[in-house]
Amino acid sequence: MEKEKIVVLTYDAPHRKTQDLLFRLKIKKQFPVVVGLPWQVRKNFKPLIPHRPWQPFPIKPVDLCNSLGYEYILVTNLHELISLLGVLKPDYVLIAGAGLLPAEIVSCYKVINSHPGWLPLVRGLDALKWAIYEGLPIGVTTHIVNEEPDSGLLIRQVEVPLYGWDTFHSIAWRQYELEIELLSQAVEDIKKITHWHKLNNDHPVRRRMPHALETRLLQRLAERINRIENFDEADNFYASIQN
């Protein structure tokens, strides 16, 4: 049976999420074409409580792909990307790193995102922090994207369990690992879907959490953790996401 054609979109710069995803795909014997977009310099917002793994291995994407046996193609803008996808004709496009994509891409291909939040309740940035602050489910959602941020068609959702021994950063790390694993599994998960569920976009798209709210974040988490009587190990959770 012929393998699916998969494209991984990323930035043409060392990028932790991309590196972790490519390692997982290699283990799963998937061989995507990796497409690099120019790194987008953004306004440097400094959170009070950093939580995303940000330190990548200091290796260029092209060198990493050569080591893993993946084809790497650099494009300089979205117009080049649209043309390239027209040539490659991928079955799936996985977003490891990219900004909002135009309609010419999301309407023509199955573009898959792994969002570190429970959609549609927690859309946008700092999803983990907003979920903790507002007492919402903490989870990860894979979905086929459309033109609206963090919307489209649901592939899979998994809630991140909380344990009595948890800290903010143990939860953040567990969520990040789940985010990578579900993205690497998304193509196989799609094959199991018999009925598509559309994610509504009625909930607001969040921005970075302001410092004034971040100062209360750990207290709200502590109150949530104190209500938990579950001190079990997380082994069963990691085993469950493989199914």
Describe the protein's topology.
Blueprint: E1 6-11, H1 16-27, E2 33-37, H2 61-68, E3 71-74, H3 78-88, E4 92-95, H4 103-106, E5 110-115, E6 123-124, H5 127-134, E7 139-144, E8 152-159, H6 168-191, E9 197-199, E10 205-206, H7 211-214, H8 217-226, H9 235-240
Characterise the protein shown here.
With 243 residues, the protein is an alpha/beta fold. 36% of the residues lie in helices and 19% in strands. It contains nine helices and ten strands. The strands form two sheets. It has an eight-stranded mixed beta sheet with strand order 3-2-1-4-5-7-8-9, with helices on one face. It has a two-stranded parallel sheet with strand order 6-10.
